Known about the structure:
The complex is a heterodimer. Chain A is mainly alpha-helical. Chain A is built from 12 helices and 4 strands. In chain A, helix 4 (67-94) crosses helix 9. By secondary structure, chain B is an alpha/beta fold. Chain B starts with a helix and ends with a strand.
Amino acid sequence: MLPTLLSQIVNGLVLGSLIGLIALGYTMVYGIIQLINFAHGEIFMIGAYGGLAMFTYLLPTFVQQQWYLALPLLLLAGAGVSVGVALIMERFAYRPLRNAPRLAPLITALGVSVALQEGVRVFYPGATAALPFPKVFVQGTWAIPVPGGTVPLRWTGLLIIVVSLVLAFALNSFVNNSRMGRAMRATSQDRDVARLMGIDPDRVIVLTFVLGATLAGVAGILYGADLGFINIDIGFQNGIFAFTAAVLGGIGSIKGAVAGGLSIGLIKALGGQYLPGGTAYDYVWIFVVLIAVLVFRPQGFFGETERVRA
Amino acid sequence: MTRRRTIVTAAILAGALGLTACGTNREEEPAAGGAAAGACDTGKGTLIIGMVAPLSGSLSALGLGMRNSAQLAVDQANEACSVPGYKLAFQPEDDQATPQVAGQAATKLSSDPQVVGVVGTLNSSTSQTVQPILNGRDIVQISPANTGPALTLGEAAATAPVRPFDSYFRVATTDLVQGPFAADYLVTTAGKKSIAVIDDGKTYGAGLAEQFATRATALGAQVVAREKVGEKDTDFSGVITAIRALNPDAVYYGGEYPVAGPLSAQLAAAGLAIPLMGGDGIVDAQFVALGGRVGDLATNIGAPAESLPSAKKFIDDYAAAGYTEPYSAYGAFTYDSTNVIIGALTTALADGDYTEEKRADIVKAVQETDIEGAGGSISFDEFGDTTNKVLTVYTVEGDSFAPIEGSTGAFEG
């Protein structure tokens, strides 16, 4: 039974690191402007469609056939499209509501989410149904030998784990060590005082959206390459998981988003295997754990308790 | 500032209305049959044949084939002046494969006094909400695709059948036949003895999987796992790991191709080189595009249209009409369903003009149908089920499903 246990842990790590990558976008935007950007899941979905469009309509055949040429271009296209849409969204949907009561941008975010999803459905050719995604990485499976059998790990799954962790570390060191990162932290602590220190909060906020959207776009491409197809619902479903991961890890915390994502992946995989009800109930366990954590530690694993603002 | 905001709001509202208010989908003057229809006497007005099917969403490959096939039947009836004095219009409504949306579509159709019958739905779950709405107005409904037994036989379909709605008919056979038929093939013919059964928890998928599992067990095979996946799930690694440890030699999936295709691909990726078998809901080329593998199996209702001499005319006419989408799994049966309604309409209007009271006569005429259709002979038993219980096993060859020679037959219990 060891191979089964390890296989489920591998499944959990693959899903969890992807969720964590998306969750970083939720957590950073919340950290800076206290907005739960529900449209972030759709940014992930649009990244996948951006990469698909690039592959289908722009790449010449000889590039399509070489994954090591196609994959970097797709990642760029996915990140580029996600960033573009996120910038438009920030400028026209969220910035006008910067000083409005918190509920207004929240409802706007839900509206943007629906608009983006329906926009892709109506305007992307064939997006009313699932579309096959190109195989832009090594296909096949690494059968890891363990006592009693083997543990299958798709090469694309391994790619997701590696890329997600590298990007999360890079983001963490950017926020903690760079000048711009310090400006982000300052803006998150107190926007008005940061402005007095010569920081332009609008620039910081735009940068936050750009970083989150880049990660989401990359996640969209990795997701499509791993599963071989995409549809317009992937944004909503994975967005909800990612939001849950951000809350579980402590919203506003980068470490927390990754820890929350990995927890959700592992709970889903192991809960589906070993807890009563089987895989039909795996979503239930995610939210049972979320509720339990929120009862005993409302700020999540790594979150700070909310300060009262003067 | 305020004015600018008002303008922006108005613009957004206008845009939203433009997107949602597509208005009616009815086409009053079909481009194809326009000239020919002019030759018939249509002085008594226009009667409408409706359709409720998934025209968008993940199942649209099947739904669009249904729409085009019904359109073809209506166009041909207009050209042939099949209903003297009336022009027929076809009004397809999108149900997005969602019961709640299907209910809205049915309400919209049933509120129109000129609607004489409805073809559809595709999903058994959507028919559950459509049936009572249409039945309340005596509008006949014929489904080319519903296989859920309860739709015609009531909740206790297998033991104490009771027909719930007199206006509902179907030309597809039920899963009481399809599930066991699949089990006979997979266990007896293909020799699979250790089978993992997975379904999507919907009316169609769960019912089909249950019927399959019961028969497979009776035939001496072992159902080693009974798992469920979500209709919108995309990553099935958890389920696959759970069944991988049990060493099945085949997987039976109750559900539709948007899940079945990726599921088959992920089975292979996890090192399980075993065939996946499903029902009529996975018989579409999209199954292969989404990851279905060569050697995967499926049962479908009826005999393969390509092999029936009666279907040749349908296939040729469909090609000649130049639709962009293929007629897909239910094309021939949809064409037949539409023709049954048109035929019943002609019978019911033989002794008088159309009024809403005539709808009951149309239902009665459908009940007495006995014709040779593109998909085989069509007549209905006392429950509204087809008496033609033939099924065929298909397998993936190249990039689409092909019928297995000699597998067409009926399940005799």
